[in-house]
């Protein structure tokens, strides 16, 4: 049985993971961290019945006392780096599902993880369909000169662009081998109307009620466009990927592995 410490257990994604762990025969929720509701039973909070795992706010003490097999962080962007440092310092395999990390953050974590000989899996998206969407976009990038990414999320998502959009743009730029041709319009009447840029790809972040998590990659050339889209309808679509990551992260080499595809 793989014992899991879950950071961000009291959030929407965290509670969905609590429910998934409750029904999986190979994994078990051992400890839980959250910014609020300290002392509450997370099983009760998730609607699965009391499981004796109480929410804590002290990560360092929890890791020292409980020594889980795997640490999974689905908390908030502002807390990710500090949480990761604690898990790596404790020499515990780490999965980061929270987004908002920059390229420099990834480099720092990779150096720390290699020094501590700890595997760190960073998964901007746990949905299998989203991983395939990124793979298809990277393949298409070899044949198109122009590309844009539109990502749509619920209003409570804190970072922009999303980790999935960021990862997609990096994969597309890598596959192409050079920047895309960025089409003009940057002097529009509304500054920023053409979005942000990574590798010549314009990225646009939409935050509206009614969305959960959606992304569309649009590639264009003379006379044609290609649209590659993924839609996450409910959060349970992430659970197969979450459980796969928990079961496979310990098999990875020391250092940062960016993307769920590393355990697929």
CATH superfamily of the largest domain: NAD(P)-binding Rossmann-like Domain
Shape: globular
* Biggest sheet layout: 7 strands, parallel
Please give the domain count.
Answer: 2
Instruction: Summarize model confidence as the mean pLDDT.
Output: 94
Q: What is the helix tally?
A: 8
Kindly, what is the distance between the CA atoms of the first and last residues, rounded to a whole number of angstroms? 20 Å
Helix-strand pattern: EHEHEHEHEHEHEHEEEEHE
Structural class by sheet pairing and helices: alpha/beta
* Order of neighbouring strands in the sheet with most strands: 3-2-1-4-5-6-12
The CATH class name of the largest domain reads Alpha Beta
Describe the overall structure.
With 264 residues, the protein is an alpha/beta fold. It has two domains: 149 residues, 3-Layer(aba) Sandwich (Rossmann fold); 106 residues, 2-Layer Sandwich (Dihydrodipicolinate Reductase, domain 2), CATH 3.30.360. The chain has a seven-stranded parallel sheet with strand order 3-2-1-4-5-6-12, with helices on both faces. A five-stranded mixed sheet has the order 8-9-7-10-11. The longest helix is centred in the middle third of the chain and has 14 residues. It is globular and about 60 Å long. The model has no long low-confidence stretch (mean pLDDT 94).
Topology:
Elements: E1 2-7, H1 12-23, E2 27-33, H2 42-46, E3 55-56, H3 59-66, E4 70-73, H4 77-89, E5 94-96, H5 103-116, E6 119-122, H6 128-140, E7 146-153, H7 163-176, E8 196-198, E9 201-207, E10 213-221, E11 224-232, H8 239-248, E12 255-258
Parallel strand pairs: 1-2, 1-4, 2-3, 4-5, 5-6, 6-12, 7-9
Antiparallel strand pairs: 7-10, 8-9, 10-11
Helix pairs in contact: 4-5, 6-7
């Amino acid at each position: 049985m793989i014992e899991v410490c879950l950071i961000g257990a009291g959030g929407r994604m965290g509670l969905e993971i609590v429910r998934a762990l409750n029904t999986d025969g190979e994994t078990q929720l051992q400890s839980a961290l959250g910014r609020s509701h300290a002392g509450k039973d997370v099983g009760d909070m998730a609607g699965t019945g009391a499981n004796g795992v109480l929410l804590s706010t002290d990560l360092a003490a929890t890791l020292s006392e409980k020594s889980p097999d795997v640490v999974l962080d689905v908390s908030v962007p502002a807390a990710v780096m500090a949480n990761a440092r604690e898990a790596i310092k404790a020499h515990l395999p780490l999965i980061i599902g929270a987004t908002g990390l920059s390229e420099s953050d990834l480099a720092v974590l990779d150096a720390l993880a290699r020094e501590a000989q700890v595997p760190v899996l960073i998964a901007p998206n746990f949905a299998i369909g989203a991983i395939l969407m990124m793979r298809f976009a990277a393949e298409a990038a070899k044949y198109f000169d122009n590309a844009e990414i539109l990502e749509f999320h619920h209003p409570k998502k804190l970072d922009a662009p999303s980790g999935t959009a960021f990862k997609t743009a990096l994969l597309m730029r890598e596959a192409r081998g050079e920047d895309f041709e960025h089409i003009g319009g940057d002097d529009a009447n509304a500054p920023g109307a053409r979005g942000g840029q990574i590798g010549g790809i314009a990225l646009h972040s939409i935050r509206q009620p009614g969305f959960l998590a959606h992304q569309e990659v649009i590639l264009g050339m003379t006379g044609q466009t290609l649209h590659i889209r993924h839609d996450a309808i409910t959060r349970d679509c992430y659970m197969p990927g979450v459980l796969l990551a928990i079961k496979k992260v310990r098999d990875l080499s020391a250092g940062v592995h960016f993307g769920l595809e590393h355990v697929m």
